[in-house]
Amino acid sequence: MNRTPILSATTALLAALCAAPAAAQSGPDALYLRSLAATCANCHGTDGAALAGQSMPRLAGLQSVYISEQLKAFRDGKREATVMHQLAKGYTDEQIAALAAYFAAQPAK
Ligand code: HEC
Q1: Are 92 and 45 in contact (CB under 8 A)?
Q2: For 7-22, b where at least 16 C-beta lie within 10 A, e where not — what string?
Q3: Ligand 1 near 70 CB (within 6 A)
Q4: pLDDT attached to residue 108
Q5: Would you say 107 and 48 are in contact if contact means Cβ atoms under 8 Å apart?
Q6: Per-residue CA distances from 1 to 4, 5, 9, 11, 78 (Å)
Q7: From the CB of 81, is ligand 1 less than 6 Å away?
Q8: Rounded distance from Cα 57 to ligand 1 centre (Å)
Q9: What does the alpha-carbon distance between residue 46 and residue 23 come to, in Å, rounded to a whole number?
Q10: How far apart are CA 82 and CA 108, in angstroms?
Q11: Of 23-27, 49-53, 70-74, 75-79, which range is least confident?
Q12: Residue 73: CB within 6 Å of ligand 1?
């Protein structure tokens, strides 16, 4: 029995799986962006639209520059925080820019 087709199919699948995260980081596609932004939803509301009266700050509709500056200030210890300084440490400049653009584009409810 010839096993070569199975081996090459497995190799192709592995190559595709390994390539996927790198591609998503260099140019975030919509799904990648939504899952990145979903990590903020527990506290800031779905798509950053925290409800009025909630103590969490709303992200939806804030200026993109403002959001990325705040995230970098949290990350670099320049803005004091209760939780955001820890969370912001996990994001690269590219991810912060993508998150900022995403939330800036969401309608403020
Ligand atoms: C565990 C809850 C929690 C999660 C998850 C969370 N945040 Fe926050 N965020 C806060 C709190 C609380 C503050 C107020 C500052 C502080 O005390 O940390 C805040 C403040 C902010 C601010 C400043 C808002 C302003 O008006 O100045 C930005 C921007 C922000 N968060 C972005 C994000 C983004 C983007 C994510 C997802 C990557 C995220 N946060 C995830 C709790 C959270």
Answers
A1: no
A2: eeeeeeeeeeeeeeee
A3: yes
A4: 83
A5: no
A6: 9, 11, 16, 19, 64
A7: yes
A8: 7
A9: 26
A10: 24
A11: 23-27
A12: no
Distances (CA, A) of 30 to 2, 71, 77: 41, 21, 30
The pLDDT assigned to 8 comes to 56
pLDDT tens column, 5-61: 655 554 454 444 444 444 444 455 889 999 999 999 999 999 999 877 888 999 999
Computed from CA positions of residues 19, 21, 27, 29, in that sequence, does the dihedral angle turn out positive or negative? positive
Q: What pLDDT does 27 receive?
A: 55
Tell me if 57 sits within 8 A of 43, measured CB to CB. no
